[in-house]
Write a structure and sequence with these properties.
heterotetramer; A mainly alpha; B alpha/beta; C alpha/beta; D mainly alpha; B: alpha/beta; Rossmann fold; seven-stranded mixed sheet; 14 helices; 15 strands; D: mainly alpha; 15 helices
Chain lengths: ~300, ~425, ~250, ~375
Amino acid sequence: MFSGYSMSELGAIFAMQGFAGLILFSVFVLMALGLAIIFGQMGVINMAHGEFMILGAYVTYMVSHVFQTWLPGLFGLYFFVAMILAFIAAGLLGMAVEWAMIRHLYKRPLDTLLATWGLSLILQQIYRSVFGAREVGVTIPDWMMGSLPLTDLIEIPINGIFVMVLTVAISAAVYVMMFRSRWGQQVRAINQNRVMAGAVGIDTERTDRLTFGIGCGVAGVAGAAFTMIGSTGPTSGQLYIVDTFLVVVFGGAASLLGTIASAFTISQAQSIMEFFLSGSMAKVLTLLAVVGILMLRPQGLFALKLRK
Amino acid sequence: MSDNKKTPANPLKSGPNRRAVLAGGAALTASLFTPKFLRAQDFPTAAVNTTGLAVTDDTVTIGILHSITGTMAISETGSVQAEKLAIEQINAQGGILGRKIEFIQEDGASDWPTFAEKARKLLVNDKVASVMGCWTSASRKAVLPVFEQNNGMLYYPTFYEGLEQSPNVIYTGQEATQQIIAGLDWVNRTKGAKSFYLLGSDYIWPRTSNKIARKHIENFMEGCEVVGEEYYPLGHTQFNSVINKIRLKKPDVIYAIVVGGSNVAFYKQLKAAGIDMTKEAPLLLTISVTEDEIRGIGGENIEGAYACMKYFQSLKNENNRAFVAAFKEMWGDDMVIGDVTQAAYLGPWLWKAAVEKAGSFDVDKVREASPGIELPTAPEGYVKIHENHHLWSKTRVGRAQADGQYEVVYETEDLVEPNPFPEGYQ
Amino acid sequence: MNALANPNFVLMVEGLTVSFDGFKAVNDLSFYVEPNECRVIIGPNGAGKTTVLDLICGRTRATSGKIAFKGQDLTQMREDQIVHAGVGRKFQNPSVYEDLTVFENLEISYPRGYSVLGALVFRRDAEVTARIREIAGMIFLDDMLDERAAILSHGQKQWLEIGMLLIQDPELLMLDEPVAGMSVAERRKTAELLNRIIADRSVIVIEHDMGFVADIATRVTVLHQGKMLSEGSMAHVQADPKVVEVYLGH
Amino acid sequence: MKKQRLFELDEALGFALLAAVIFVLFPAILDDFRLNLFGKYLTYAFVAVGLVLCWGAGGILSLGQGVFFGLGGYCMAMFLKLEASTPENTAIQSTPGIPDFMDWNQITALPIWWQPFHSLGFTILAILAVPAIFAFILGTAMFRRRVGGVYFAIITQAVAAIMTILVIGQQGYTGGVNGITDLRTLLGWDIRPDSAKVTLYFVNGILLFACLFVAQAVRKSKAGRILIAMRTAEDRVRFSGYDVASFKVFVFCLGAAFASIGGAMFTLQVGFMSPTLVGIVPSIEMVIFCAVGGRMSLLGAVYGALLVNWAKTTFSESFPELWLLGLGGLFIAVVMAFPNGLAGLYQDFVRPHLGFLHRERARAPAADQSPAE
């Protein structure tokens, strides 16, 4: 398939395909980070993760309208406001859900799965009632929708760079929170031994709620960012859920580093296969490979071998 | 943001702005249609309804069967709205054979077995005289045996892949050859396009349409070739790889039949990757993006792309102006109307014309009367039902504007004959 | 000498090592258990006592080393195969089936119908019932056969689990802290029970209660940080200065 | 110590009551259309019964039961489609005699793996064997490596996603999104008229009872008790000499075969099979049927499937926009407030008033404890 192209063309294509893979990688990390926090640290399966993301997208949509109406001069910057508000909105909803539902189910992880699935249906219907059944069009500031021509052949999409920068920033923030802050210490303590953590004076209820809220908040930011590349509709969240879970499980649930590594592996595999095969087959083969590897290595790529 | 608020939760209650709608309907009627005020007593129920349909002395009941929940609700909402508008307008004119139309709305819930179940319910339990409904081919295929077995009448609004001709369905949208061939010829003739990259969501309509496109390009268009053909799963949201492949192949035309949520992702990523469609290098031609879809994609992201279908909201004729005005009166100013919405609007009117021609609600008589039915009042212009139950219609090419509307740049001179089983394209 | 084939020992452990992410929980451990011997393993917390039992019964896989039971290499066998070979193991925390009755708990351990098909066609015949009654008598639960195991006291659960092992009549019985958490009365009854059941089989016991150890042990192995610190009779071990240092220093 | 019986008195009465409801009550009070709908609901009950064994008894939650339902459904649909695709019926095609969707996809000869489905015998065998073999491979791979709980759930969910994409993507062989439609006769017997649907309803009911009896027999055998034992103390079972994985594989295969029978009956009753029955959403909905009925109770699962689907039809006829809220609320309510579903409500509120039925039983059976996790 490469006959008839010059070396520079091929080089450019491979560079751009590599970049496409990196964008996909960033998207996967963004999708999965929130879930990795919730699933990895709390053992809760949040099937409504996609709906929390879409909440972030709808917040972005509303903020864009507010700016268009009242602050047209600052429209180019609304996206940053939208992401902060998306984090807050999704985070608060997450904390409310934790309080009302999840905290009663910590000992029954499979039941959290069913309950949060129910939640996702309810959220979908609420979105549909509030925002309509149709997709909404989120207007992205012009500066974010262009591309940077590097050479004649290589063009780098700015929104791709934006997603990557955002991914790095959020990953770094999560890392700092998990491994450098008191909260992170408490979360990890609770993850290892809930009873003991409570006994040494950690407010496990508050920490749980905060953790769940932060996980959902990160999902909200991801949703806000995805308005640049995807659709915003009541059921759009479901598009992400399987990929997201596979990334987290493949990485080894308890490990944030594992999540990032698995996002990298899956995205590169999919991106390379997409280039050589048809899109549908690439997807099937990627999923098959992930499931196959998980069967051979159920603890995921980066799980620690623990003494039981 | 507010269209759903305007959707009446209970279909039997009328929507808002009833008076305005009636006025709109009346305007349409007055300007375009010579109303024949038919009185019910001239058509005794026993005579016009010999098969036990839900027809009384002053009402006739039909069904509306679309998804209002699930993933397809995004697309089907417009069809429901258009069908309700047509029913309101027909009732404002005095109904059909002096009988007001009442309707029972069922939710197919984007689930094909549910469509079949609801279709059965409408035909068997509710005995509706006809059904306006379905959107995806899969839902139509699911209900088709139900309609054939129970002898119902379905008005199906979507442009689709063809390869079907049921005595129990009137296809008010275009079949694939009607929609595809004129557009390909046009882009070759006026833009000099020689190489095509075919892209689609992975299911039967894009695959069949691309098959027809490929056959046409390879067999009937001199010196033209297909340089790539690619399918992505429904709901796929990452298109950077295919965009790179397109760059590599440098086609003159990207022929895109992406649907649903994937559409939004595809056009946003295309724009972000620096492929400016207004430069038309490559040119993008689609048959799957109506004004409805542009709302989700954002006009600024698809500006400059060409779409090939039979109807655009911006069509400049009296019928369409009245239709658009009435539609916005009923459902709100921020509504847009796409090809399928317009085709759905034709359904009740075509049925009315056939019933009146037959002088009966009986499905067999309506079917017999249907071929040859003309509708000069159609927003898209004159249409006529073909022997094969599809519509003769013109095909048009529109260029997407930043405001989300299409500017019509081409329309076929004559009506294009529907040809659901095209020779030479199999 | 091929230690694996030596018929004088029921169990041989040689050079046994297991590491978790570099941490060697058991380090180059060797010991031998003779027929009808009661071996008690003692040692401070974290010495690797439970891990040794896990390794023998197949719950944890050895990094290196050999474990042979009557000439069979246990390191290559599945847990259930090890059980069939004649090794029984009781867990530290009583592990019984709380949703089932005492009778059903014992019945599941009855050594017949191990395969799926066998379990489907298994019939509760007179022989099974008689044997379960006999064991229930031994473990002081003969009047509780129809109770759900969930309502048993901690001590009764320990007995039940011991009973579930007894019904299989293993040649090597491994008990992890069988009297932990028991009342004085229960403890006395348990000692009596253990003394009865260790009579005609080899037993490995992990225990902290030195009085209890002295009561039952044939030989004692002292573990410290995964390694063998001392081995011999109770008196020998108690006199060993290394052992004294570990325990006093602890 | 009691004698082992297949049925306790109250269980026997429960079975008899369900039989009365399915075989007498419904046909008596429902018109043909509704009866056909309930027949469709009953096909989901097969899946729910299988899930009671896997999830309720064995603690294995599969979110991929739709795959097995679909495999059974597609096997049956392939047979029916071949029967419907006679050269006379398909004369209009470029290659007469093959299914219409193959012709649309330029396939000119029947694929080799479709050939055996000309035979009803082979088809019935395939309906039972294909899902069981698939479940065996999947289960062996996972249970041997001790994948369980949440991981198993997510992996089976991914399998459902893969299956859907595959079926849709290979539309020349599977009919794609549309599925396999326009099925007409079974060995010349027209399955479309109402009279045929009524017959199929009874066949369906009889098969469901056959599955219920098998499930009851498994539960009452030592294997059933081992499953319960595994749920609370898996290691203890393992160190009592059982190969735990093989028991899990067994119930998983059994559940898969039940689901598959349900799928085949679905195809017969509804007249087509499509990938919407295979994917993630239907798979999770099938779990909720089971949860509503009570994950421990075989009969509860049947009532759960009937109740949820009946509610779905009724609500979506009257309040389509509220239906999702209702369904979502049902999920949450069942998990939070009624973890044992209908069967739990029966145990707590009805059974105490029926003391005479179970006087001989000393204590309540295992079903009233909280769900295992």
